[in-house]
Automatic annotation (TrEMBL):
UniProt keywords, alphabetically: Glycosyltransferase, Transferase
Transmembrane segments: none
Organism whose genome encodes this protein: Corynebacterium accolens
Protein known as: Nicotinate-nucleotide--dimethylbenzimidazole phosphoribosyltransferase
Superkingdom of this protein's organism: Bacteria
GO terms for MF: nicotinate-nucleotide-dimethylbenzimidazole phosphoribosyltransferase activity
EC number(s) per entry: 2.4.2.21
Enzyme class (EC, first level): transferase
UniProt-listed Gene3D superfamilies: 3.40.50.10210
Length: 258
């Protein structure tokens, strides 16, 4: 991505900075002033402690949105994006709490893979067999579907809300950090009817096969490989200091010499 001789030594750091500059339509990029992590979940869930700790360390704020109705979830996600952007957010980190089966089944259908390919590591052979069967049944219900029909067939209000949130953020030209199988899958779903690619930075990749498939479909290379299981917004918050470092280094490197 970086083609300036001054930026070549900084590799992916300058890539992240130039991505942000393109989103902001200015060069060099300016450091985001209001970073918001927005996490969608059904009733009874809470923000993981690790996510709260990471947000505190980088000065980001977290919004928790409860979503339970599939029929209204997409619109709720759109409204949440509008609320954050209208409130001054200039960098968004979407997150969601749901079963791994949601992303696995959706990406299995979109990538036209067999259930055994999208099943992640399981504690035992019996658990693996049960997971394969559940994902196989879910994929059967989704067969031949695309776009909003596919999202509805997932029967996940969290996924639907994430698709609405990320689609609206892209429409409103607001950059997004993507760090988990569920959010990457939501981005892949959103890409069916929204020009979302340029507004996404993949901060890391998890061991879940659905995550790899989603990033491949989106043509995104992750900034980091932290070898950790998905925790909502944690990967993006962990990568944020590197993004900000890249912004500062790039600004220094491209300043005219006195």
């Amino acid at each position: 991505m970086a083609d300036s001789p001054q930026l070549y030594p900084y590799g992916r750091l300058s890539d992240a900075a130039q991505w942000l500059a393109a989103c902001q339509d200015r060069s060099p990029a300016s450091e985001p002033k209001r970073v918001r992590a927005v996490i969608f979940a059904e009733d009874g869930e809470g923000i993981p402690q690790a996510t709260e700790t990471a947000a505190r360390r980088v000065g980001a704020s977290i919004i928790f949105v409860t979503v339970t109705d599939c029929s209204t979830a997409y619109d709720l996600g759109v409204q949440a994006a509008d609320a954050e952007i209208d409130g001054g957010a200039d960098l968004l980190i979407p997150g969601g709490i749901d079963t791994t089966q949601v992303a696995a089944a959706a990406m299995g259908v979109m990538a036209q893979e067999e259930p055994v390919v999208v099943v992640g590591k399981q504690p035992s052979v019996e658990d693996w067999k049960a997971e394969v069967a559940a994902i196989r049944d879910a994929m059967f219900r989704m067969r031949g579907l695309t776009g909003r029909e596919l999202i509805n067939a997932c029967d996940s209000p969290v996924l639907a809300a994430l698709v609405g949130f990320m689609s609206q953020a892209a429409r409103r030209r607001t950059p997004l950090l993507v760090d988990a199988p569920l959010t990457a899958t939501a981005a892949a779903c959103a890409a069916a009817d929204t020009r979302i690619h340029d507004w996404l930075l993949a901060t890391n990749i998890s061991p879940q096969p659905a995550h790899r498939l989603a990033l491949k479909k989106l043509r995104l290379d992750p900034l980091l490989d932290l070898q950790m299981e998905p925790v909502p917004a944690l990967g993006a918050l962990a990568a944020l200091p590197l993004v900000l470092l890249g912004v500062e280094i790039t600004a220094d490197a491209t300043q005219p010499e006195a």
